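Practice problem: predict the structure.
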Amino acid sequence: MRTAMARAGTPGARLCTYFLFCALHEATHHTPFRSRWLNNAVGHFAGFLLLLPFEYFRLFHWNHHRFTQDPLRDPELARPRPATWAAYLFHVSGMPNWAARISTSAGHAFTGRAPQPWIGPEKERLIVREARLYVLAYCGVLAGSIALGSAVLLWIWVLRRCSGRSSCASICSPSIRDAK
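Answer:
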């Protein structure tokens, strides 16, 4: 188990995380494959591993393209810029992003609503259903780990999320770096 946990924090694991996002992003545009089905399958696979539901990201991303750099409508500019160095380091750690991903998906799954302005009423049911299926699958991963008596899969997933952070943030975070 120690070996798997140690490998989860390697540069290779970080690179894998970055490539997963590339797959998600390109599948959103339907560019990797001629088949829409295959683009969607790859998008959902990558989105699941990244805790970023594919259909939700597709709507978010298209709205970003439609309103790029418009501070009132570009969803990527929704959060205020960090005002201090500490806030900046926290921002580049990626932790606010992961917290937002989890809380947004949980909100969709458990409230049955998708209130973001880029999600039209015609897509709300799709986004809620997707969030519920992802949460159910995450529970299945957790149950599988428990049934097998091993937390390796969960640790690899959690540590890979933490290791996907910027190098500066990894250096500045001894609790992650020094974890045994």
